[in-house]
Amino acid sequence: MLTITVSGMHGGVGTTAVVANLSAALQQQGLRCLCIDANVDNMLRLALAVNPEEKVGWAKASLEGASWKEATLQHDDGRWVLPFGELDADELSRFFPTLVAGQSPLHAVVADLASLPLDCVLIDGPTSRSLPHYSLPNVDLTLYIAAPDAASYALLKQDAGHWPASNYRILINRLQPAQALASAIANLIADDFEEQMVPGVVHEDLIIAEAQAELASVIARAPDSQAAQDFQSLALWCQSEFQSRVE
Asked: Which of 75-89, 120-134, 218-232 is the least confident region?
């Protein structure tokens, strides 16, 4: 089973959109996918068409002593999603220490997944600066999402040296080639982190926002779009990368 954590270099780089659309591409290619939200803002559920009034999630279940399996929801296209859950201020104050403890309830969730009919699990993780302070399960691959902006470049230069080189890759998201500055920064990132780069980028495409507004993936909404092609290529690369490591 392929396990991937997707973490943004900073807020607003499109991490949740990458999880939602990459999982849709993997599902289309025949992999049975589960998406897990590891963020307290609990936004991944919206990207997978979950009713906004739905409060269930693995974190809420752990506080209530319930099974996380009761909080899993299924998208029309077959993907499964496990939200974080909607917690009030008191619940958050009781739950947050478990996130930074030696082993959060999410470890137990991922350990249980081995017995389920799944091929791929994607975790929508916190930003890269927060990731070391969270107790997340070990995964096959961590994708760090960088925008072609100065903040992403600066954080990569500052933090990437502390990451385990064996299981992370950097993906540039929201690239607009026509913008000279964005292209220049994207080239700087690619040059400085050549061995860690995903071979390919996800381009800025208005169809992504339109698909999000319709609670759909770009794969379903516009399969011939540039964004859909980018995510399909990324899905194929993830599978190839996983196979190369297994072999």
From this structure: 120-134
Q: Is residue 141's pLDDT more than 80?
A: yes
Q: Rounded to an integer, what distance in angstroms lies between the CA atom of residue 121 and that of residue 203?
A: 24
- What is the per-residue pLDDT for 243? 85
- HEC string of 177-237 equals CCCHHHHHHHHHHHHHCHHHECCCCEECCHHHHHHHHCCCCHHHHCCCCHHHHHHHHHHHH
User: Is residue 101 pLDDT above 70, yes or no?
Assistant: no
- Using the CB atoms, write b or e for 22-60: b if 16+ within 10 Å: bbbbbbbbebbbbbbbbbbebebbbbbbbeeeeebbbbb
Q: How many CA atoms lie within 13 A of 79 on its CB side?
A: 33
**Does the global pTM surpass 0.85?**
yes
Structural tokens at position 137: 């399960």
Q: Look at residue 136 and give its three-state secondary structure.
A: coil
